[in-house]
Specification:
- The protein is mainly alpha-helical.
- It is built from 2 helices and no strands.
- The longest helix has 26 residues.
- The N and C termini lie far apart (about 75 Å).
- The model has no long low-confidence stretch (mean pLDDT about 85).
- It holds the Pfam family SERF-like_N.
Length: about 60
């Protein structure tokens, strides 16, 4: 039983898939996270969340 070039096509497809996964690998691949350590990202994200909560509280106080 011969398969023709089916195996070669499957290998090429898998190789392309693996390359795409490597391009999009993890949060470090994003431009906003380049060069930042995990601790730096956590600190930045915590500050953003504090600001967001503060704005929400202010909006709640203003309408209530």
């Amino acid at each position: 039983m011969t398969r023709g070039n089916q195996r070669e096509l499957a290998r090429a497809k898998n190789q392309k898939k693996l390359q795409e996964l490597q391009k999009r690998k993890g949060a470090d691949a994003k431009d906003s996270n380049c060069g930042m350590t995990l601790e730096q990202r956590r600190h930045r994200d915590a500050e953003l969340m504090r600001e967001k909560q503060k704005k929400k509280e202010e909006a709640k106080q203003g309408s209530g």
